[in-house]
Amino acid sequence: MPTLAPPALPCSHELVLKVIPMPADSNANGDIFGGWVMAQVDLAGAVLPARYVRGRMATVAVKEFVFKQPVRVGDILSFFSHVTRIGRTSITVDVEVYAERMSQQGKYLKVTEAQLTYVAIDAEGRPRPVPVQS
């Protein structure tokens, strides 16, 4: 299995979340539920768009989600994100997730990646323009 120490990411990627999955997050095989990982990716993916949106937003699309390796109980997961597109009402981000296995801390293994789109919404839940950055 290839490892990176630390992940060799472009400078546009930012560490937005670190989390350790616990036994309650695992399936019958002892691996972490894919859905649990997806929820964490959604949380991590929302961090950078929140800086632009400055208010309510909603996840509207997940274009791609690729699981490359299983996630295990006790892995230290690092979520890196970067904005790839800012539209009139939406923001798209890429999220990459790396695991440090408990027995191999300091060595990073890419476990998944995804592309998510968030839309800015008003109080009624309708799309609204993303504020212009100054």
UniProtKB/TrEMBL annotation:
Pfam family, one: 4HBT
GO MF term set: long-chain fatty acyl-CoA hydrolase activity
Assigned keywords, A-Z: Hydrolase
Domain HotDog ACOT-type: 11-124
Family: Belongs to the acyl coenzyme A hydrolase family.
CDD domains recorded: BFIT_BACH
Identification of the protein by name: Acyl-CoA thioesterase
Annotated Gene Ontology cellular component terms: cytosol
Gene Ontology biological process terms in this record: acyl-CoA metabolic process; fatty acid catabolic process
